[in-house]
Specification:
The complex is a heterodimer of chains A (about 675) and B (about 160).
Chain A: E1 4-9, H1 21-29, E2 34-40, H2 46-58, E3 63-68, H3 71-84, E4 92-96, H4 98-102, H5 109-127, E5 135-138, E6 142-146, H6 150-161, E7 165-169, E8 184-185, E9 190-191, H7 192-205, E10 209-212, E11 215-223, E12 226-233, H8 248-252, E13 258-259, E14 268-269, E15 272-273, E16 285-286, H9 292-295, H10 302-306, E17 319-325, E18 327-330, E19 334-336, E20 353-355, H11 356-363, E21 384-391, H12 407-421, E22 426-431, H13 441-450, E23 455-458, E24 461-467, E25 470-477, E26 483-489, E27 491-496, E28 498-500, H14 504-511, E29 538-540, H15 550-568, E30 572-575, E31 580-582, H16 592-596, E32 602-608, E33 614-621, H17 631-635, E34 641-643, H18 648-659
Helix pairs in contact in A: 1-5, 2-3, 5-18, 6-7, 6-15, 11-12, 12-13
Chain B: E1 8-13, H1 17-26, E2 35-40, H2 48-56, E3 61-66, H3 77-95, E4 102-106, H4 112-129, H5 134-140, H6 143-154
Parallel strand pairs in B: 1-2, 1-3, 3-4
Helix pairs in contact in B: 1-4, 2-6
Classes of the chains: A alpha/beta (about 675), B alpha/beta (about 160).
């Protein structure tokens, strides 16, 4: 005979304000099999947990239903509570009164009735729960880091330094990411390359790190501790084991006019190229889309003729390798909107309206102008420059509601750098609000305004057009009662919105992780689990989760690395035993289940007679591989497969408890 | 018919639609209270006999919802559910089940608002169609006993 305990949580006001929790607890007392029922303000608090533990012991409960928030939130908490009271943790279930009831309905009798019905469903289910014991699986102590920007570099180094193996995959020919493109970094104005390049070299030389550049993740299978990743190594057309990086090929390549990605389109590069002088590895690849040899069927081939080490290999093919990893850290970074996104700023047709990233390249000593601020159109030094923040960001009309977080700071830095380089020049910044939250950030912006005399105008720019070689910037100053402001600028820099990588959606699908409405990857919990995803064993770091600056990316990267190290500190993982199993007596051996199992977890088992002869073959589920999707359960024609936690009996009981003649609405 | 409050049961997967419904909650999106959600690991787990059982227990409408194609937590469970639905739809029509009462949908973990819309849409739709009283008649001519028999066997 079941003795079920029902614990109804008010969650403060969250449930209590719309659902009459005391009434639910009272109704639950009358459900068949319920031995104890109570409501309490905060069930997850220490006194709440003690209440549950004592009730389990005192009333000798055989099952527990906690009616509170989503089981996706607190199921582990309450299962632990049950275990501490000596009850098998899998005899505890949660009814979702908060996310699925109190938060989505108005205060009404029907809402309380619904809450009671949800409790009843779970009471019926938990009566049929059986004690289960966690499954132990080994851990592969190698981490896969996807993306070689500053977040990926930090993650890889931290994991490698804690003694575990790391495989890093970077899609472009060099690691370094966006940080390598930056000139100087706020708020200290130290040179980005100077602090980044030593770390890039460290990654390449670290004995625990295997680096694959010009490579992409093809697919990921498996589960926490036991992933199988297939990596596509794109054909570099250069044998890096032979190449000595002399650069002869890049110098002689006849194709020279390809817009340079590293210089954000402000410079050009050849078809065989190293993205930038400090690249790691510092060896070229051939961009096959632009190379004459590949476009015109074997014509040219100049690099092959002049290469002193005979490293050029036009016949190279994309290669696929499979690696076993225990954890994955996604650090694929972000992208920014281009100037062509803004009709009011000329749709990108004015050459002297550039993005913040392009200004970084102009200001960088390794950039196309060797650090001199010159206009892209005629190479003149601009005497009047305008910076516009929130270009796209915080603009629901543009579909980007959020603040991109980094623009206020980098525009202040740009204005400062400009004033340091062009002393006579005038710099103005149009802003909505100055968001300078961070250690010494506010002081940095004040320095730009007060010491470097940057003209900050609070207001938006409605239009920019060209007139007599000048860019006419029309805006308002909202601090002067929306007084119209018109500036004749030589150059305009847009602090364009930081957006998700274009490939983030397809990558999320490969990894089975979720992403938000802007296609940034979703963390497991916005506050308490900011570096994990909802898929166990996959972590996030850096701007692929949301635009963030270097200090934030690095902290998140170290956070992700410590999560991975914690995972790797165990030799075995315990896994939920919610997996499928076969009833050998009724299995007819059709093996339809084998054809639908995505994990190849179903094996054939021979049933033998005493003399060793095979009587028949039946299905057998490998508990190490089964992930508990239950597709085989629904498919099995003789109903011989069932699944722990969602068994036939349990789900039928749930459904039947809802609407049968005893249903609450009809009492 | 205006005071008819339909009883809708939703069979959802844990990873996408259940999380999407959670998101509707955290976003405080209000929707009709007529829905009762049953959690499954995956839509691939959903046996169509359960749908019959739900109608038999008095449901007026059913929602089956899981991850979008290609987003399945278990790689392919949602594809199996989709195929099963295509096959069973014909069978259910043949048996005389009103398949307008079954809504098949994809709601991801990021689509809290879509979940709210879906529930309201289904509730409105079922309100128009009316209570599923015909099912009881079907029961007399055999469907009920088939699903009853099935349940008896697995017990």
């Amino acid at each position: 005979m079941s003795r079920i305990g029902v614990f109804v949580c008010h969650c403060g006001e969250n449930i209590g304000a719309t659902v009459d929790c005391a009434e639910v607890a009272k109704m639950a007392k009358d459900f068949p099999g319920v031995a104890f029922s109570i409501d309490y303000k905060y069930m997850c608090s220490d006194p709440g947990q003690t209440l549950i533990k004592e009730a389990i012991k005192e009333h000798n409960l055989t099952g527990v239903v906690v009616a509170a928030c989503s089981p996706r939130m607190h199921e582990p908490t309450f299962r632990k509570v049950a275990a501490e009271a000596g009850l098998n943790p899998y005899l505890c279930e949660m009814a979702n009164l908060r996310e699925h009831c109190s938060w989505v309905h108005y205060k009404d009798k029907s809402t309380t009735l619904k809450a009671a019905e949800l409790v009843r469903m779970l009471v019926e289910k938990v009566k049929l729960n059986t004690p289960l014991y966690p499954i132990k699986v080994p851990v592969t102590k190698t981490a896969l880091v996807i993306g070689g920007g500053i977040a990926g570099i930090q993650t890889a180094l931290d994991i490698a330094n804690s003694g575990h193996k790391v495989i890093m995959v970077e899609k472009s020919p060099s690691i370094g990411g966006h940080m390598s493109q930056l000139s100087e970094t706020f708020p200290t104005l130290d040179c980005s390359q100077c602090i980044l390049t030593p770390r890039m070299v460290e990654v390449a030389q670290h004995p625990n790190i295997t680096l694959y550049t010009y490579a992409e993740l093809e697919s990921l299978d498996g589960f926490i501790g036991n992933f199988k990743a297939t990596i596509k190594l794109k054909a570099k057309s250069v044998d890096h084991s032979v190449c000595n990086g002399c650069g002869e090929c890049s110098a002689k390549c006849p194709i020279k006019k390809i817009p340079d990605e590293f210089n954000a389109g402000l410079g050009t590069r050849p078809a065989i190229y190293v993205p930038f002088p400090q690249a790691v590895p510092n060896k070229p690849v051939i961009d096959r889309d632009n190379c004459t040899y590949f476009r015109k069927n074997g014509k040219c081939g100049l690099c092959e003729k002049i290469c002193p080490t005979k490293a050029i290999d036009f016949s190279q093919k994309d290669e696929f390798i499979t690696v076993d990893v225990g954890a994955v850290v996604v650090t694929t970074g972000f992208d920014i909107k281009g100037t062509d996104f803004f009709p009011e700023y000329g749709y990108g047709k004015y050459k002297d309206i550039i993005t913040g990233l392009q200004f970084e390249r102009l200001a960088s000593a390794s950039g196309p102008t060797l650090g001199e601020i010159r206009r892209p159109s005629d190479g003149k030094i601009p005497q009047n420059i305008v910076f516009i923040s929130c270009a796209g960001s915080r603009d629901p009309a543009k579909g980007i509601d959020y603040c991109s977080k980094i623009c206020c700071m980098y525009l202040a830095k740009h204005a400062m750098l400009y004033k340091h380089k062009v002393h006579s020049g005038k710099a103005s910044v149009f802003y909505m609000d100055i968001r300078a939250g961070g250690k010494t950030y506010e002081e940095f912006v004040r320095r730009a305004i007060e010491e470097d005399e940057v003209n900050y105008v609070r207001g938006r720019v409605s239009r920019i057009y060209e007139k007599d070689g000048k860019l006419i910037v029309k805006g308002v100053d909202t601090l002067l009662n929306s007084y119209p402001v018109e500036i004749e600028a030589d150059m305009v820099v847009l602090g364009t919105a930081g957006i998700a990588n274009p490939e983030s959606e397809s990558l999320a699908q490969k990894l089975h992780i979720s992403y938000d409405q802007y296609h940034f990857f979703a963390e497991a919990h916005p506050k308490l689990r900011p570096v994990e995803t909802n898929t166990a064993g996959i972590m996030l770091a850096g701007a692929c989760q949301f635009p963030k600056d270097i200090p934030d990316s690095v902290s998140q990267a170290s956070g992700a690395a410590s999560k991975v190290s914690a995972l790797f500190s165990q030799n075995e993982l315990t896994r939920d035993p919610l997996i499928a199993f076969v009833n050998k007596n009724t299995c007819v051996g059709c093996f339809m289940c084998q054809s639908v199992c995505p994990y190849l977890a179903i094996e054939k088992e021979k049933i033998k007679a005493k003399d060793g002869s095979v009587i028949r073959e039946v299905a057998k589920i490998n508990p190490g591989l089964c992930q508990g999707c239950g597709t085989c359960v629904a498919l099995c024609r003789s109903k011989s497969i069932d699944i722990n936690g969602y068994s036939h009996k349990q789900v039928y009981a749930e459904v039947m408890s809802l609407f049968n003649e005893r249903s609450l609405e009809y009492v | 018919m205006s005071d008819f409050e339909p009883k809708i049961i939703a069979f959802v997967c844990n990873w996408c639609t259940y999380a999407g419904a959670d998101l509707a909650g955290t976003s405080r999106i209000k929707y009709a209270h007529n829905i009762r959600i049953v959690r499954f690991p995956c839509t691939g787990r959903i046996d169509f006999m359960l749908l019959l059982k739900a109608f038999q227990s008095g449901a007026d409408g059913i929602i089956v919802s899981g991850c979008h194609p290609a987003d399945c937590h278990y790689t392919a469970g949602n594809y199996h559910a989709r195929r099963r639905w295509i096959v069973f739809q014909n069978l259910l029509n043949f048996l005389g089940i009103d398949t307008r009462r079954i809504t098949f949908s994809w709601v991801s973990a990021a689509e809290g608002a879509k979940w709210g819309h879906l529930v309201n849409e289904v509730v409105d739709n079922i309100k128009k169609i009316g209570p599923y009283t015909e099912y009881a008649k079907l029961g007399k001519i055999g469907i009920g006993s088939i699903s009853e028999g099935n349940y008896a066997r697995i017990e």
